[in-house]
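lol forgot to send this yesterday, sorry. struct tokens for the thing we talked abt
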């Protein structure tokens, strides 16, 4: 299943869970990203109907209790909703490593732009006078920030559009502008990379997202290139970015009973204070931020500052205490 179709199905589920009313196909088309079309255009409307029928079949095949009905005897068109009682999961108990994997997947889901689309869809429902249950939005607002380059790069990969960006390297004093046909965005050892065809070097290259300086600009038309088949992006990144020796040490304090992933990676543990060996400040800071208030950096100062810089916009959006207050 394509990424765009998966996103559309997720947003459809959120839309139908967010209200107890039956929503007509027209209301769904005006609300869920991916269904937008001109109802007066017979060809476009027919394409929407085929797409919607496929998506309904997919949801039912996945076990989603999609109900059809009306809210009133005066309604002339049937609508759709999801039966919450049948949709709710029983209590699920996860081992610590399973819970960590689910948390990572949830953060990635929010990072990839689904949160903004889902929130936009719910606002459209409210504007149309449909009562929305605020407890049924599945936490679609972002909590932890990803690399700013992630969303535009994944969009460029989906649309097969070239990108232009400024990129920093350890050997250069100033960022250099690069042009790339992106084939995919992958994660390795806690860092995000984009792999593709470098238009200036005329060769395959990969770039670490944390080294991007400034925005990613999409250029040219969609479907401008076709990624090669049988290319292992992870393997290419692994060979291009050999892991440097971890020669530096960080000291962090963990909340009691939390941060099990960090505890396993530590080379020394003294109660809830652990010491970690690392090579790159930015990479370790990004990893620690994912644990939120469960982690406080004690040393070194540059790592503490890097974590606070990442937490500050999150705290600002949430309206909570500043990261410097939380980390003190």
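and heres what i got for the seq, position by position
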């Amino acid at each position: 299943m394509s990424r765009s179709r998966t996103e559309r199905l997720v947003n459809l589920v959120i839309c139908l869970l967010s209200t107890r009313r039956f929503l007509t196909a027209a209301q769904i088309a005006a609300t869920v990203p991916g269904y937008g079309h001109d109802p007066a255009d017979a060809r476009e409307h027919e394409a929407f109907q085929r797409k919607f029928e496929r998506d309904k079949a997919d949801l039912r095949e996945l076990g989603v209790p999609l109900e059809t009905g009306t809210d009133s005897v005066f309604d002339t068109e049937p609508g759709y909703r999801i039966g919450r009682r049948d949709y709710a999961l029983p209590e699920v108990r996860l081992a610590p490593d399973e819970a960590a994997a689910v948390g990572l997947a949830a953060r990635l889901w929010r990072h990839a732009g689904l949160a903004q689309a889902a929130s936009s869809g719910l606002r459209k429902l409210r504007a149309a006078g449909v009562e929305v249950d605020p407890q049924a939005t599945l936490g679609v607002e972002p909590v932890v920030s990803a690399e700013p380059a992630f969303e535009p790069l994944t969009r460029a990969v989906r649309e097969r559009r070239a990108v232009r960006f400024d990129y920093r390297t350890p050997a250069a004093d100033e960022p250099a502008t690069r042009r790339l046909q992106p084939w995919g965005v992958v994660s390795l050892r806690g860092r995000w990379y984009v792999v593709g065809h470098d238009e200036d070097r005329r060769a395959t290259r990969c770039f670490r997202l944390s080294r991007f300086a400034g925005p990613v600009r999409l250029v040219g038309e969609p479907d401008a290139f076709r990624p090669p088949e049988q290319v292992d992006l992870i393997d290419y990144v692994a060979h291009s970015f050999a892991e440097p020796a971890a020669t530096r040490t960080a000291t962090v304090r963990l909340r009691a009973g939390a941060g099990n992933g960090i505890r396993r990676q530590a080379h020394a543990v003294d109660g809830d204070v652990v010491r970690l060996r690392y090579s790159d400040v930015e990479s370790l800071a990004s990893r620690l931020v994912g644990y939120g208030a469960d982690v406080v950096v004690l040393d070194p100062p540059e790592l503490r500052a890097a974590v606070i810089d990442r937490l500050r916009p999150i705290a600002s959006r949430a309206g909570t205490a500043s990261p410097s207050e939380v980390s003190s």
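The mean pLDDT is 79. anyway ping me if u want another try
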